[in-house]
């Protein structure tokens, strides 16, 4: 489906800001908050975010790279995320972030005790809650953008 966007309007700004003014701006604020207030390291943050983007198929999200203090992950990082099980490019926290994002997106009922033992060996409870909120945000909003055809019509802002 493609949402009709008036000529001259930014698709994301129009859908998120004007079409549903009681919900869209609040959703946008949550989406921005996961970038502005995260305490997670850049590599684990991007591993989870890119894994959700790969599963959602959101073109905008796949093209995006989070920047912190002038740094972004290396160009090959997205390929490593797709191969999170076997890549040698990740430490255990980064690998777990990608695994958690995938399992959360595809089969959250299968997050078993064995997984949580591994996860809690590398993340504290606050970090797990934060990562979960980030993954939930990306899952919901990346799918919204892709399902409604916004991801192929928006332009990446260059300020990030």
TrEMBL record:
Residues 27-102 form the Carboxymuconolactone decarboxylase-like domain. SUPFAM superfamilies: AhpD-like. It comes from the Bacteria. Pfam families: CMD. This is Carboxymuconolactone decarboxylase family protein. It comes from Actinomadura decatromicini.
């Amino acid at each position: 489906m493609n949402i009709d966007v008036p000529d001259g309007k930014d698709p994301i700004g129009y859908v998120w800001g004007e079409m549903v003014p009681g919900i869209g701006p609040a959703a946008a604020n949550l989406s921005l908050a996961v970038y502005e207030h995260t305490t997670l390291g850049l590599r684990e943050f991007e591993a989870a975010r890119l894994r959700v983007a790969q599963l959602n198929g959101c073109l905008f999200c796949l093209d995006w790279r989070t920047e912190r203090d002038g740094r972004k992950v290396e160009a090959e990082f997205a390929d490593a995320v797709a191969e999170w099980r076997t890549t040698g490019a990740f430490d255990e926290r980064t690998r777990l972030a990608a695994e958690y994002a995938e399992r959360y997106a595809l089969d959250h009922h299968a997050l078993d005790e064995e997984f949580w033992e591994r996860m809690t060996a590398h993340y504290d409870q606050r970090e797990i809650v934060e990562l979960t909120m980030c993954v939930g945000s990306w899952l919901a909003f990346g799918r919204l953008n892709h399902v409604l055809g916004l991801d192929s019509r928006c332009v990446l802002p260059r300020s990030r």
